[in-house]
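=== RUN LOG ===
request id: a7f3
mode: sequence -> structure
chains: 1
length: 948
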Amino acid sequence: MIAANNARSTNNDPVGSSESSPITGAPNGGSSRLMRQFGSLFQPAAQRSDPAGYVEFGSISEADAQSGRTLGTFAGVFCPVALSMFSALVFIRVGFIVGNAGLYVTLLQFVIAYVILLFTVSSVCAISTNGAVEGGGVYFMISRTLGPEFGGSIGTLFFLANIVGCGLAITGCAEGLIEVFGRTDGGDVGSMPDGHWWRFLYCSSINTVMLIVVLIGAQMFAKTSMMILGVVVVCLLSTYVSFLSKGPMEVAIPLQNSLVQNTTHRANGSYTGLNLTTLADNLYSHYGQDYTSDGKGVNFAVVFGVLFSGVTGIMAGANMSGELKNPSRSIPSGTLSAVLFTFLCYIALSVLMAATTSTFLLQNNFIFLTPINLWPTFVSIGILTATFSTGLSNLIGSSRVLEALAKDKVFGSLLNFVVRGTFKNNPIAAVIASWVLVEAILLIGSLNTIAQINSVLFMLSYLATNLACLGIEITGAPNFRPTYKYFTWHTAFIGMLGTGVMMFVINPIYASCSVTLCLLLVFALHFFSPASQGAQWGSISQALMFHQVRKYLLMLDSRKDHVKFWRPQMLLLVSSPRSCCPLIHFVNDMKKGGLYVIGHVKVGEFSESDSSNDPTIDEYTQWLSLIDHMKVKAFVELTLSKRVREGIQHLIRISGMGAMKPNTIILGFYDEEQSKDFFEHENSPYKTDEFDDNGVKLFPFRRSGEQKSLLPTDYVQIIDDVLRMKKNICLCRHFHRLDKQMIARSNHIRYIDVWPVNMFEPKNEDPFDVVSQFMMQLACIINMLPVWKRLELRVFLCESETQPEPSSFQMNSAPFERSAEHRLSLLLKSLRISASIHQIPEWGKEMDIPRHRSILKQFTSKSDSNQVMTEENINRSKLYMQRVNQIIRDKSNATAVTFMYLPVPPKLSTIDYKEKCHHYLDLLTELTYDLPPTILVHGINSVMSTTL
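=== RESULT ===
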């Protein structure tokens, strides 16, 4: 017996249960983990409001202080963000932007960039105020919101963005050093030699100094950043004062600018001081060439790429989340303050440059701020400190993201060295790995080229951040309650749209490569990353799917169903999956993309006096594990009922949702065959120890000698119930013999057989009625799959009666004795079914069908006869079925699976109903004896169409 009595209960006690937390329902330890992650939310401290637009709960715990969370808002967020947004742009590249794009376009580009940044900051603030933020910054936020696949891929790209950003800052620092201490207009040799490899040496030296600072730790970085910010602000103020007070002068063009300089010609640019004519000349665009990139042409995209690369530091504070005392308070206020501060500085600097400096000088001397400054040394110090601090911020940020990726095992054991290489909460191995990658970026050399790569990678990270918040807001997740007040789905959408468009404006090739790399990482992590992370963190994909499925289920109207688009919606009733693994797999093949539900009835009573949980709750997880083990695309429905028959009625009614309800019910056959444990059998492809819990076998089944819990009468009544509930039904027998691997490689098995004849009432009037069509449809579905596709479909036509003498017209048109085959052939052709027709001519000659038909009708509900069965009729009917079975067996030597017509069961109102039920099952048993895997099918509606 395969799924014999598949609705039979397995009255086993729940296995593997554990005590649960009274708050979360998680096993012991879950509550404490929740408190660790969201400790501030459970503190009894009063609420505090803040001008930044959020409400903060609680305060820093002692455990956080002991774990290294010592940084406040100013040192941990404002300083890193402000310095990162100044970077190499403020002293080296604002002139390049104004000189080429003009003041109007420059201001427009700053507004575009900061609008994108502002909306992205809103998303960051929303995530950071929606729960406890740990180390890893943006990666932590995105991975815990979008799930491991998107989080891991975006985290990897954000790590690379920080690496490129660090290389950009170091390159800017080296360029500033060379411009200040290199060759001058007065000679060919300066204190610092110049050249590609000399620059790489200077960059490597600066990178190594940064490595030493970062290795000392985050506190050293914080102290350094505060001091550097003070220096940068002083240097920037000196620049503003110089613009306002310095008079006209000539400024030499660097010798490195080979576009206008050579060995015989020395060019100068004009600094005019505050002058309306100069301002008018610089209002509009004058795109030229970039002398630091071998004369490459400059356009809007290049300029915006350079500009945006200088203001990508908004995540610098979030990257320090693991060291912040109170991330949900510090990240919003510190980031927003830094964004406003740097925006005002850039706008003022752009206006003053346009009003005081000629276009020629702006385009050909990126370091012109030094000679026009009242104190030239201040500009040199500003360049060095701003770029050095930005490089520090990116280097430590990239190391923290890499550490978070390693701790989460996103790439399995590949990053284990990072976890092992941590000393006093400082990821030494991650810092060194980041330093090595920065060295590789430094080989590119050109600051403007690195800037475009940097901008695209950061924009992709920002896009993902906005996407995460937009997705959660759209799905209406109840637990998404950020205390930051100014976030809406509109801000997330505008931020996502802006970053998506501008990254392709900057450089379509770099943007396409980044998106492709991101998608490849998503697919790789989906297939190879540990699946448990999605359950631990939660994945936005689940929320989005729920949102969309609910919407489309409401749109799916069963009243609009059409036979052309019919597909099987299967409900397989299973007693114990141990004994019917091949059947579970076979039904998965037969569903043709339709609904597949595995149902189980547990016999019992849900008593109010019983304090224990519903036992189906504990077993549900086991059944889900079974689905994973079997690798089938199915849902699980469990129910608790006093009687199996009643429970099956419940399953048929409750399974599915809306218009997606099962239309076909599948049961195992009721027989006396010994069940086989496919989880234990040595040669079974389903062998596993997963469902053996400390010697207790999950999913127990009836052993040899054990009494069935379901009576034959109940089983027949279940069949009758299914038909009265207007569902198709299939009874499956001998599926313990099904071996798909053997079917795939064996040349002996060649056929799928269909017997569209009601063996209880054989006739030729309609060789292809509704039941036969449904049977043929299922056979066609199986024949479409790769494993079954090579098999030939055979339809057997049984001549059950002697045909009358043909008329002269029939004799002239076609042989009358072949009319049934001809009708069937035309029907198969109109239904686009490729199948061979095989006649059984000996059927009517040897079986004496007319005499047996009246006897067999007693055992079906199609007859109103209330005749009492006699011993003679019972024996005759059994003998008839044995002879039919012998004919079928003779034709089934090379058959993989057989589809047969299931007669309707006896009526409840007939005399001797119980005896007729027993005999009905006996006849089906004789009919299917020793056949290949066999499905007895009864359909109730037409499922085939001959029209387009």
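=== NOTES ===
The longest strand covers residues 596-603.
DSSP finds 35 helices and 20 strands in the chain.
=== END ===
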